C-alpha cells in the first residue's frame, strides 16, 4: 500500500533500491545506505544482507507477480540508478501499470525516463534533515522537476516553522502541487505533527498527507 502523498491508500508494490546521496538524520530507511548504522535490535546494517543484485528482467517479473496497478520505486535515492531501472519502467508502462518514483529531488531525471509517463513524488529535504543546503537543494534539478506535469512536491515537516522554509522553496522554484507530510515513526508522533501543521497548510492551499503505513505497522519493516 502506498502510505503517503497523492496516491495514499492505493494498492501497490514497492521496488526499493539501495544507496542514497544524502544522509538525513531522521531517515526511515537507513538500511538502504547507512553502513555505519544499526537496527532497533542493535544489528549493524550490512550491504551483503540488504542489497541483492538482480537483472532488469528478474525485477520486472517479480513486480508483475504482485498483480497490482501501481509500482512505487523508492530507496535510498532511486534516480541514482535510473538508467538501470529504465527497462523495468518501460515494460511496466507498456502493460498499462502506473509507476511513481519517490525521489529527494537532487538527481535530474533523464528525458527517456520522463517519456515513459512515470510520475515523480519529489521530496526536497529541509534543514532539519541535518544535510548541508548545497547537497539537499540542487537548483537546476528542482527547476527541471517544476516544469514537469508529472511531478508533485512532498515535504516532511515537524512543526509550523518548517512551513516557512517550504514556502521559500515554493516561491524560489515555482513549485506546484505541494504536499506536506508529518514527520514521525509512530501514529502518536504523526498525530501531534498533523495537529500542529493542519491550519497553516489549509491556509496556504497546500495538500496534507498522513503516513498510512506508520498508522498500520509503525516502523516495522515489510518483506
Ligand atoms: S533522501 Fe530519503 S533515503 Fe536518503 S537519507 Fe534522506 S530520507 Fe533517507
UniProtKB/TrEMBL annotation:
List the GO biological process terms. Answer: tRNA queuosine(34) biosynthetic process
> What species was this sequence derived from?
Streptomyces sulfonofaciens
Pfam families found in the cross-reference section = Radical_SAM (PF04055)
Q: Which family does it belong to?
A: Belongs to the radical SAM superfamily. 7-carboxy-7-deazaguanine synthase family.
For activity, the cofactor(s) needed are: S-adenosyl-L-methionine; Mg(2+); [4Fe-4S] cluster
Protein known as: 7-carboxy-7-deazaguanine synthase
> What catalytic activity does the UniProt entry give for this protein?
6-carboxy-5,6,7,8-tetrahydropterin + H(+) = 7-carboxy-7-carbaguanine + NH4(+)
How does it associate, per the subunit comment?
Homodimer.
The molecular function terms of the Gene Ontology recorded here are: 4 iron, 4 sulfur cluster binding; carbon-nitrogen lyase activity; magnesium ion binding; S-adenosyl-L-methionine binding
Gene expressing this chain: queE
Which positions bind substrate?
16, 74
Q: How is the cofactor bound?
A: Binds 1 S-adenosyl-L-methionine per subunit.
